[in-house]
Write a structure and sequence with these properties.
mainly alpha, 4 helices, about 60% helix, about 0% strand, binds zinc ion
């Protein structure tokens, strides 16, 4: 594979990773609340307006909306595009470490085997990131609720 082939694959994997990050954001929000991962569609937590498909494109949707809900102008957390960017870079990193750095040609050296290992590493990375974010949310919400319920604290 030439350098151009690797760059094309990296662009594809970045987009795939960003999409995985978008799903990961849904998991982080809905799994602790025991909500469905499929329905309802993504919506603004402020005004409950469904998010249009064109605004649900990882990273770009947040940039187009300038980080605010189109309907009520409520701020959308920077964490959403940050997670999507992180997972996109993670996917590219796994490919770079597995294939580019080792100077192997996956088409000659067994594409299915590399695809399997890539999927395994990428899934493990996403699962760990999801668990870390769920844990962080639980930790911060408990910490803030503890502060709010302390006597004498307004
Ligand atoms: Zn809204």
């Amino acid at each position: 594979m030439t350098e151009l082939h690797h760059q094309i694959v990296e662009c594809f994997l970045f987009a795939l990773g960003a999409a995985a990050g978008s799903f990961l954001n849904v998991c982080v929000c809905r799994l602790p609340a025991r909500q469905s991962l499929c329905r309802p569609r993504s919506r603004c937590p402020g005004c409950n307006t469904p998010i249009a498909a064109r605004h649900n494109i990882p990273i770009l949707g947040w940039l187009v909306l300038l980080g605010r809900c189109r309907a009520c102008r409520m701020r959308i957390s920077l964490r959403y595009p940050a997670v999507e960017l992180t997972t996109g870079l993670m996917f590219v990193s796994v490919y770079w470490i597995q294939i580019v750095r080792s100077q192997l040609d996956p088409l000659e050296a067994g594409f299915v085997g590399y695809a399997f290992w890539f999927a395994l590493f990428a899934t493990a990375d996403c699962a760990l990131l999801t668990l870390a974010l769920i844990g962080w949310d639980a930790y911060t919400s408990r910490r803030y609720s503890a502060v709010r319920t302390e006597p004498g604290v307004p």
